[in-house]
Amino acid sequence: MLRIGQLADYAGVTIKAIRHYHQRGLLAEPDRDHSGYRRYTAQDAIDLVKIRTLANAGVPLARIKDLLNADPDTLTAAITEIDHDLEDRVVQMRRTRDQLAQLRGGDRLFVSPEVADHLDVLRELGVSERQRELERDGWILMQTASPEDASRWIAEKRELMNDPEFRALYLDHDAAYDWSPDDPRLPALAARTRNWFINHHSRSETRPVHSPAIARLAARSQPGASSPAWDRLARLTGEGDERENQR
Asked: Any idea what the Cα angle at residue 118 is, between residues 113 and 123, rounded to 5°?
């Protein structure tokens, strides 16, 4: 006869585990002797070793009770089913690890590979973190609202970034965020911007947007998407357009 501590040592489990198996109905809980100790038999030790072996193999505790005294065919079928469940869990865990790896990679978890590559180019060009985050969040919204439109637009945006004139405008606009609204460089930047758009027509503008939500999302302000200098720059650019239309 064994006390609970001796049984735990023999089976290689903790006393807490044995008590948990008692609560789950996996291991019969013997009566106490006249000294107040529970005494376990050799059969209890055998059952505990079986429980430990099944549990260590990944068998859920809820199924162990039915398998302790199952015939070989039933046990084999159950173990095969449990093995398939474990394989599915392994696949899911690998997916989770891949997602964690992507998280360590930054933006690639949230945007398409094309957008992620575009953001990498911006980083290499020295574009501010604020601007890269604005672009990333904007692409996340657009991809969700209209993946087809977003795919077409990012292709065009990546082509534009290869244009030295456009790239210089992009970098100057990024820098202008922190300028004073009275900065004398703003009118010249507005004129350059206006002239560039007069001479370059976006292919996207000639095609219908497949989702009306994309237009609303594109027009919706994001935190940090404006500054006093940017607001004046937009007014200066717009005023130039109005004068051009009045001619």
From this structure: 125
pLDDT score, position 209: 45
How many angstroms separate the CA atoms of 114 and 187, rounded? 34
pLDDT tens-digit readout, 143-192? 887 888 889 889 999 999 999 999 999 999 999 999 999 999 999 999 99
Tell me the CA distances in angstroms from 193 to 161, 183, 188, 197, one per residue in order. 15, 16, 9, 6
165: amino acid identity, one letter: E
Whether pLDDT at 208 is above 50: no
d(CA 82, CA 76): 10
* Distance, C-alpha 103 to centroid of its chain: 6
Strand, coil or helix: what is 2?
strand
- Backbone conformation region of residue 233, classed left if phi is above 0, alpha if psi is from -120 to 50, else beta: alpha
